[in-house]
Design goal:
alpha+beta; NADH Oxidase; 6 helices; 14% strand; globular; binds flavin mononucleotide
């Protein structure tokens, strides 16, 4: 049976090497609309989707994230992983040279609770990821995209990204054409119980 939604779920994998080619604005709009179409608790839609399709701004975010990673011991393991990738001749970057970052910020006040808003944000993230996959783009769901907001440049980036007052980082999705990929992860059948 052929089913585009199931195929997108089955074929998706995390891209950690992107082509420089930009995401065209029509596709970007479709991908972001898929995010806006997400369900949310009590239909509160406690999110703001901010697509950064600008390589100069992404380079600034990357520089700030790298500075944080290299200077804060809590990220030692992640920084070492990046160094290992560098030694293996791969991109030594946090955002893998992505041409586009889609940030999802959440409004904890508008949600029934922060926990509820975070759940909603996860759904937006997956809608965006699967929409991008179905349009032929690679994606990397990215928690490290928070790093630039944990630095002294927080206010600068908040202003540049036009983040509404009080909104918190939820997650980001890197989107672009995959340069080199990998197999989707094997599923663990012991993680499933079906009771008839
Ligand atoms: C909430 C979340 C945050 C993630 N953050 C990162 C990240 O910052 N950097 C990264 O390279 N991958 C990140 N990933 C990707 C996971 O490492 C990846 O989904 C997992 O290893 C399974 O691999 P797959 O996506 O190829 O199936 C994140 C995934 C999720 C769901």
């Amino acid at each position: 049976m052929s089913n585009q939604v199931l195929d997108a779920m089955k074929n998706r994998f995390t891209t950690r090497s992107f082509e420089s080619q930009k995401v065209n604005s029509e596709d970007l709009n479709l991908i972001c609309q898929a995010g806006l179409q997400s369900p949310s608790a009590v239909n509160r839609q406690p999110w703001k989707i901010i697509a950064v399709n600008n390589s100069d701004l992404i380079a600034e975010l990357e520089g700030s994230a790298m500075n944080k990673l290299s200077s804060d011991s809590q990220y030692e393991m992640f920084y070492k992983n990046i160094q290992k990738r560098k030694e293996a001749g791969q991109a030594a970057t946090v955002f893998y040279n992505t041409p586009c970052m889609i940030y999802i910020f959440i409004d904890p006040v508008k949600g029934t609770s922060l926990e509820s808003a975070e759940r909603d944000c996860g759904i937006v993230c997956e809608n965006i990821t699967l929409a991008a996959e179905s349009l032929g783009y690679g994606t990397c769901i990215n928690g490290m995209a928070k790093l630039p907001f944990d630095t002294e440049k927080e206010e600068y980036f908040r202003s540049k990204l036009q983040i509404p007052e009080g909104y918190q980082f939820g997650v980001a999705v890197l989107v672009g054409k995959t340069k080199s990929g990998k197999e989707p992860h094997p599923t663990l059948e012991n993680k499933l119980t079906i009771i008839e």
